[in-house]
Design goal:
Layout lengths: L5 E5 L9 H12 L5 E5 L2 H10 L4 E4 L16 H7 L3 E4 L2 H6 L4 H13 L3 E6 L3 H5 L3 H12 L9 E5 L13 H19 L7 E5 L7 H5 L6 E4 L6 H13 L1
Parallel strand pairs: 1-2, 1-8, 2-3, 3-4, 4-5, 5-6, 6-7, 7-8
Helix pairs in contact: 1-10, 5-7, 7-8
The structure holds phosphoenolpyruvate (PEP).
The site of phosphoenolpyruvate has 13 residues, from β8.
């Protein structure tokens, strides 16, 4: 049986108080599409206000530290995110892996911390263009998945996002056949890593998803949703993706 679609907007370092109204508009659209799970991950500064203003809508974070507290200037813990109003967080986004040198082991430790705090996690994996051109995409991505995979994995709290690095923010998307191959490979790897229950772990596609290509991407086998950057910043762009998810 197909999994319920799960569409999440990653606002990255975008959004001031003035953009809280965009979250309210998106939450209102999500409320009208009860067949799909929808959330927004704004910058940390907006989490509490967004969660308080939209109590039935899933507000998430974009990262956290793997320790509970301590001397980690500039970081926040999973428990802090939860107290702020987040119910889940993105982990291991390629921008974190590239800009902050996050390793698979770091991502795994963060996922364990997030689960211990009672939050959900979306773990991102994806190959660079050089890796794809070298024919290594599946090996790289399934390797990242194995290295980042938390011991306590369970579909109740864990989602995987396949995000080819070269497709993020570029307007380029992989061939549909490549998306199908990769999501199938991730599904098979989840089976190896988890055994029973692995089919229920949702696998999102991320990388230049928009209102024009969402329906085709979301219809691919084992594509259980989308992680969306640029096209999640307002209701005009994000709404059609939510509609496409409910229609597939
Ligand atoms: C992302 O950064 O997670 C992402 C998918 O971005 P975009 O949709 O803008 O490519």
């Amino acid at each position: 049986m197909a999994n319920r679609k799960y569409i999440v907007g990653n606002w990255k370092m975008n959004g001031m108080q003035a953009q809280l109204s965009d979250i309210a508009h998106i939450a209102a659209i999500a409320a009208k599409h009860g067949g799909v799970d929808v959330g927004i991950c704004p910058p940390i500064t907006l989490i509490t206000a967004a969660a308080n203003a939209n109590p039935d809508f899933a507000i998430g974070a974009q990262d956290c530290h793997f320790n509970e507290k301590g001397a980690h200037t500039g970081n926040v813990s999973a428990a802090m995110l939860k107290e702020a109003g987040a119910t889940y967080t993105i982990l291991g986004h390629s921008e974190r892996r590239a800009d902050h040198g996050e390793s698979d082991a770091d991502v795994k430790a963060k996922a364990e911390a997030v689960h211990a705090a009672g939050l959900g996690a979306i773990i991102c994996v994806g190959e660079t263009e050089e890796e794809r051109d070298a024919g290594q995409a599946v090996a790289v991505v399934t390797g990242q998945l194995a290295g980042s995979f938390p011991d306590s994995a369970n579909a109740d709290w864990l989602t995987i996002a396949y995000e080819p690095v070269w497709a993020i923010g570029t307007g380029r998307v992989p061939e549909i056949s490549d998306v199908e191959e990769m999501h199938g490979a991730i599904r098979a790897k989840l089976g190896e890593l988890m055994g029973e229950g692995s089919d229920a772990v949702r696998i999102q596609y991320g990388g230049s998803m928009n209102g024009g290509n969402a329906a085709e991407l979301l219809a691919v086998p084992n594509v259980d949703g989308g992680l969306v950057g640029g096209a999640s910043l307002n209701a005009e762009k994000f709404g059609p993706i939510i509609e496409a998810a409910e229609a597939t």
